[in-house]
Amino acid sequence: MVRNKTFKASDYIGQKFGQLTVLGSSEPVGRNTGVLVKCDCGIEKAYPLSSVIKGKTVSCGCGRIERGRTMNYKHGQSEHPIFKLWLGITRRCYDSAHSSYENYGAKGVTICDEWKNDFTVFMKWALENGWKEGLHLDKDKLAPGKKGMIYCPEYCSFMTNHENSFHKTNSKIVEYKGEKKSLAEWCFILKLKYKSILLRISRGWEIQRAFETPIQDQSKKKEFGPYDWAWTV
């Protein structure tokens, strides 16, 4: 008796899960609906369909990604923090079961082939470009429009968690005095209250007015009438 009857391999033909591309149906695998897949390394193999589409199996075991650990990977750096960094960006871009996939791979974020296919290339770049344990890999700051859609040498850089918060994909980018920065970064530089400035902008204030109009001391709001609170932002 085959389980998971609601899953049909034909519904997933051509789709990619981790390193596996669905080719079509196969004979049942054990008591589970089977699916024939092709790994990035070229091996074709049958697996339980539910295991593939739920991200429990993401490679043939060739050593690229297998549920968060390496399998026979030859670089010998599987415990290095840089490998864990590489594994993290690879999984959120290509593993549909990863918790961050919907904000990366599902939105079209990818990794350049030279990094995706060879961890040692990524590691060499990281060591030569400022990597230190605890730093974050940012793909947005140097990208056109500060909206990075690919992890690659041209657009990536390392920064602290604080700096990285200025360059998230969903950051609001504004221009002030001829320079474009995220609103959070401008507020940090100008020592402004982010929530107050964001509220001003949402009400239609121009950037220069929002930045340059002094913010009233909230402790003095009792001096205003009941409808004057808007002027304290």
* Low-pLDDT segments, ≥5 res: 1-5, 63-73, 221-233
Number of strands: 10
The biggest beta sheet is recorded as: 4 strands, antiparallel
The side-by-side strand order for the widest beta sheet comes to: 1-2-3-4
Number of helices: 8
The share of residues in extended strands comes to 15-25%
Helical content class: 25-40%
Straight-line N-to-C gap:
66 Å
If you had to describe this structure to a student in words, what would you say it looks like?
The chain has 233 residues and is α+β, with helices and mostly antiparallel strands. It has 3 domains: 9-65, no CATH class; 76-171, no CATH class; 185-233, no CATH class. Helices cover 26% and strands 16% of the residues. The protein is built from 8 helices and 10 strands. It has helices at 49-53, 81-94, 113-116, 119-128, 161-164, 183-190, 194-202, 207-212, and strands at 16-17, 20-25, 34-39, 44-48, 110-111, 136-138, 150-151, 157-159, 173-176, 179-182. The strands form 4 sheets. A 4-stranded antiparallel beta sheet has the order 1-2-3-4. A two-stranded parallel ribbon has the order 5-7. A two-stranded antiparallel ribbon has the order 6-8. The longest helix has 14 residues, at 81-94. It is elongated. The model is unreliable at 1-5, 63-73 and 221-233 (pLDDT under 50).
